[in-house]
Amino acid sequence: MRKIVLFPNNILRSRAKEIATIDKKLLGEIEDLKKMLNASENGAGIAAPQIGVAKRFLGLKNQNGVEVLINPKITKTFGEKVYPMIVENKGEESDFLEGCLSFPDLWGTVKRYLKIEIQWEKIIEEKLEMRNEILEGFEAIVFQHEFDHLEGILFVDRIKEEGGKFFYWKDKDKEIVDVDEILKKEK
Fold it and tell me: What is the pTM of this model?
């Protein structure tokens, strides 16, 4: 079974290749991705490069299991990119901290669109059929994170370019980390 690819593995920096045909190898890779995401305790999504496959597909976990999107695109954005917030029990807002399976125990604030329109292909009877959908809130955030992986962009890049906060968070201990220190591991 495959393992989650961890930073600084070079595949995480590569732009994934478009999928034109469905074959047994691709179907096996998709099944691996689904199994890995289902087995993940905290994962809401995963992109093919995170399992060592440089192809344009990703999986999003929902109430029905894992939905796989082939050759996904963002076709429209609504509003401005913002730092998403979550409302705590007492009505107080706090930063939504985005994580990544390729960066265990690291979390950060990333600006994302809260509403997007997407297009992707779905495998129906071993053929690719086009789909469109509008995603909002958490689903839109997760999609953007996974889509970035297909472009070779990591959430630490977004944190750095936007001046977001970056944390190492293990158990109940949370400490601020310098994103440049993490990116130095790549060199």
Answer: 0.95
Structural domain for 72, as ranges: 10-186
The reported pLDDT for the residue numbered 173 is: 77
Catalytic residue among 146, 161, 162, 186: 146
> Any residues with CB less than 8 A from the CB of 64 and at least 6 apart, and which?
none
Residue-by-residue DSSP string for 97-151 = PEE-TTSTTEEE---B-SEEEEEEEEEETTEEEEEEEEEEHHHHHHHHHHHHHHT
For residue 91, the model assigns a pLDDT of 78
CATH number at residue 168: 3.90.45.10
In a domain, 126, yes or no: yes
Q: Answer whether residue 4 is part of any domain.
A: no
| Catalytic site includes residue 139 | no
